Amino acid sequence: MTTSSKQPQKISRNTDLSDQEYRWGFVTDVDADMAPKGLSEDVVRFISARKSEPEWLLEWRLKAYRHWLTLQASDAEPKWAKVKYPPIDYQDMFYYSAPKRAEDAPQSLDEVDPELLEAFEKLGVPLHEREKLAGVAVDAVFDSVSVATTFAAKLEELGIIFCSFSEAVKNHPDLVRKHLGSVVPYTDNFFATLNSAVFSDGSFAYVPPGVRCPIELMTYFRINTEGSGQFERTLIIADKGAFVSYLEGCTAPIRRTSQLHAAVVELVALDDSEIKYSTVQNWFPGTKEGVGGVYNFVTKRGRADRAAKISWTQVETGSAITWKYPSVILRGDNSVGEFYSVALTNNYQQADTGTKMIHIGKNTKSTIVAKGISAGHGQNTYRGQVKIMPGAENATNHTQCDSLLIGDKCGAHTVPYIEVQNPTARLEHEASTSKVSDDQLFYLMQRGISDEEAHHMIITGWSRDVIKELPFEFAMEASQLLKVSLEGAVG
Amino acid sequence: MTTAAAPSPTIASYARDFDELKKSRGGDASPLLASLRERAWSEFERLGFPTTRRGNELWKYTDLRRLDSEAFTRVSADSIGDITAETIRERSPWSDDWHTAVVIDGQFVSALSRNLSVEGLSISELVQSAADDGQSVDLALGKLAVIEGNPFVALNTALFESGVLICVADGAEIERPVHVLNLFTDGADNRAFYPRTLLQAGANSNVTVIESFVSLGAGPQLVAPVFEIALGSGSHVRHCRVQLENDRSVHLGTTRVDLPANSEFNSTTFATGPAIGRNDVHTRLSGEGAACTLHGLYITNGSSHQDNEISTTHEKPHGTSHQYYKGILAGKSRAVFSGKVLVKPGAMKTVAQQKDLNLLLSRGVEIDTKPSLEIYADDVKCAHGATAGHVDPNMLFYLLSRGVSHHEAAKMLIIGFASEIVDEFEPAPLREYLYRKLEQIVPELESEGIL
Question: ipTM of the predicted structure?
């Protein structure tokens, strides 16, 4: 990524991490087209109308909204996660805001609002450079509405559809209707239901049978507009024998009040296809005192049909609270699920993250590698489920989750759920928790490497198993992020 | 916390038991015990039986709805049949050398008990001792097995009529093991038993305690024992728990252990039998340098269900703990391992390990294993692991290729898997007894032709 090369590598022992200004903290002044504050059936209708959605989608949203009301009435907001936050007032936020000229969508970069371009510039997403850059197409989500899509033509040649969710609803309604909610139904959980009712926009990708998507598809998310929730909906479909690699990277400007982000990502991997989904998440984590920051309550799930493969890779360094369990339903025989994760919590950040691997088909295989790093007052929980259903003959799973603790005020927790209903399954689960090894530190320091630099080296090496799963440019950015996020936590 | 959605229809039956017990006793001689029971009863009434409802993490995998439809009633002291010393010897782990407290249907029977008192050791009836001795027993009772939030501790505390008190003096080295033998006679169906044991090990003492549960009949029964173990600083307690009940029974056991500075507690469990079994073990390392091992073997067959709820809390530095459980599952049975290690802030240099290995022998079994770590101190080394799998075909082939019959080979592998835990049982007569049991149990496992 170009962002990484532009980031100054400030590593000084005496700097406290949180003293370091949040690099991407700026607010763009764009006239937002807002729905009235609060949530009601009218707001749902407003969003749907605003996006000129077909009747069936409005109905679907309303069903979700009505279901959400029953969930709220029965107090079904999940409480089992090891995270603490004040009660969320769902009537005290905005559910829709779009950049002003959203309706006449820009045809080329020249038509894009210069202010937006500037915002992306600050984010390190120079759109006009993109085409020259390493073959990455960007579908930029700015406050819920896509403003520019590049490389569309090249992708179109191959029959690949990569566009905003709203465009997909307009241009490919059959595909959307067939797959929307097929992996994460609107009744799935409290936040997914909320998302289903009020989702604003997101990305849509479809790769036709046998096509290997030649470039990494990429979306940048940004949260803007004080107090507005962000409800993305992403749907990626790999048709039979197709391959696609999708990157999601996020930064958000500084906000005083906490922001709710409840996205839903659905992956559909049809027979023999492969989807690789990578995330680097660096949203505003709140201040050193734990004020503000993004609440990242996300539902991500993929369905793997026969001999299909879904691989999730995530580097989570941002957000005040992360509540996220990218999962794979291994429905088809011989399907494969993978989950690679590094989650870092510093200051007062809390993360409760992990995965679910549900083995239904025969000879299904899953691998989980989860690394948690806690520093400051951070609380980091790995929570994962591996379930082998009775019909999943010869299913195998290997899970490894390791935690590192830096400082005596933080916490690292591991809560794996392993449920096996087939005797031919083979499962292995390993986990360890410790601080950075004194011996390793001593070895490096006696060779003249500073305490902090030595920590960085050890942590980078320790997270290598995950980082190496990321596409190259992302891998660079990710190790950079780990370094920056841990500044001041050592010594 | 567990809160019942609606009071179970069988609660009234337990309420009658509570009232009857109160009348028959004419109140406890010890006022402290009497007030403890009242508190326990009202807590039980408040909690009711736990449900597997969403969010009830402690009972997620164990369904107790059977207790809502089927009432188990307390038996009074005089209903104990004729049990001879010969029957006991034949049906339970036994050695004439041991200090044995015989508890039949929840009643301490001194006539059948042996060697209850040697220098440094005294074994006596708990309720009586509480009345005679006053304060010291009273204060210890219910201190570790906290009533609040624990429905079966509450139920036991409210309803136990008799119990065993084991006191080991400071510095005493008790050479031969203490055996608390809980026998359940072949009587009416649906009886409930509430064995209660309290062990107070003095500072720097050393003792081995065997706790066994044996049902002589085949009728359904509820056993809800509570064992409180208060170690003295620098003491060493070895604990062997043998659970051999019939396949229609419900066993809901609670063990609570406190480990002060430099004390050591080693526990090994052998559990098989009941339709629903649960071992709720919690050890608290409340002093520096305490060491705790909790090992266990569970064998489930038919439609039985065994839940191991094992937790260890490290409160002070330099503690070590080791949880190691192994399961053999056959038929349509289900087992649960829910291990937890909590390292509190400041408990530096803690070393904790947790492992659960399972052998799945047939279609229809289910293992739910959840080895969890909750760590709030950085200078620690904690690790856990879990596996589940079938009999290794390579090992089986190795034996078959050497002319061992299929049945023998499979039996060898299963007993071999179990032996790692069984070998830990001390003294030798107990271990041998368990191996004999294994020889009986293993061929009966429903393993779809593996055996």
Answer: 0.88
A46-54: list long-range contacts, CB under 8 Å, 24+ apart: A46/A96, A47/A95, A47/A96, A47/A198, A47/A200, A50/A96, A50/A98, A51/A166, A51/A169, A51/A201, A52/A170, A53/A166, A53/A169, A54/A169, A54/A173
Asked, for residue A166, whether it belongs to a domain, the answer is yes
Which distant-in-sequence residues (6+ apart) come within 8 Å of B318 by Cβ? B288, B289, B348, B349, B350
**Cross-strand pairs, A137:** A217
Are A295 and A261 within 8 A, CB to CB? yes
In the beta sheet, which residues pair with residue B271?
A: B243, B298
CA distance A27 to chain B (A): 37
Phi, psi at B257, each rounded to 5° = -130, 135
Alpha helices for B5-30 (secondary structure H)? 11-25
Query: How far is residue A203's CA from residue A235's CA, in Å, rounded to a whole number?
Result: 7
Picking from B57, B365, B375, the nearest residue to A405 by CB comes out as B375
Q: Tell me if A392 is assigned to some domain.
A: yes
Query: What is d(CA B314, CA B317) in angstroms, rounded to the nearest whole number?
Result: 8
Residue B406: inside a domain: no
- CA B17 – CA B158 distance, rounded (Å): 9
Does residue A491 form part of some domain? Answer: no
Domain extent, residue B27, equals 11-287
**Strand, coil or helix: A51:** coil
Span A85-135, pLDDT tens digits: 888 888 888 787 665 443 444 445 555 555 555 545 544 544 443 333 323
Q: How far is CA B237 from CA A153, A378, B233, B240, in A?
A: 75, 38, 11, 10
Q: In chain A, how many domains are there? A: 1
Q: Return d(Cα A23, Cα B335) in angstroms, integer.
A: 51
Say if residues A229 and A2 touch (Cβ distance below 8 Å): no
Contact residues on chain A for B58, CB-CB shorter than 8 A: none
Count A/B contacts: CB-CB distance under 8 Å.
Answer: 117
Secondary structure element (H or E) that encloses residue A479, with its range: helix A472-486
Return d(Cα A203, Cα A234) in angstroms, integer: 5
Closest CA to B107 of B47, B53, B163: B163
Confidence of residue A482 (pLDDT cuts 50, 70, 90): confident
- Domain containing A396 equals 2-486
Considering only the beta carbons, identify the residue of B361, B377, B383 that sits closest to A431. Answer: B383
Is residue B248 included in any domain, yes or no?
yes
User: What phi and psi values does residue A141 have, to the nearest 5 degrees?
Assistant: -100, 115
**How far apart are the CA of B289 and the nearest CA of chain A, in angstroms?**
18
- The DSSP element (H or E) to which B181 belongs, if any, is strand B178-184
Asked whether residue B365 is assigned to any structural domain, the reply reads no
What are the tokens at A24? 């991407």
pLDDT band at residue A20 using 50, 70 and 90 as cut-offs: very low
Q: Is residue B396 a part of any domain in this protein?
A: no
Amino acid at the residue A375: A
Exposed, middle or buried by CB within 10 Å (0-12, 13-18, 19+), for A91? exposed
Residue from A433, A436, A438, A441 whose CB has the most chain B CBs within 10 Å, to mutate: A433
Q: What is the pLDDT of residue A242?
A: 97
Rounded Cα–Cα distance for residues B294 and B265 (Å): 8
Query: Helix (H, G, I), strand (E, B), or coil: what is residue A3?
Result: helix
According to the 3-state scheme, what is the secondary structure of B353-422? EEEEEEEECCCCCEEEEEEEEEECCCCEEEEEEEEEECCCHHHHHHHHHCCCCHHHHHHHHHHHHHHHHH
Domain count, chain B: 1
Which residues of chain A are at the B interface, by a Cβ-Cβ cutoff of 8 Å?
A: 79-80, 390, 403, 405-435
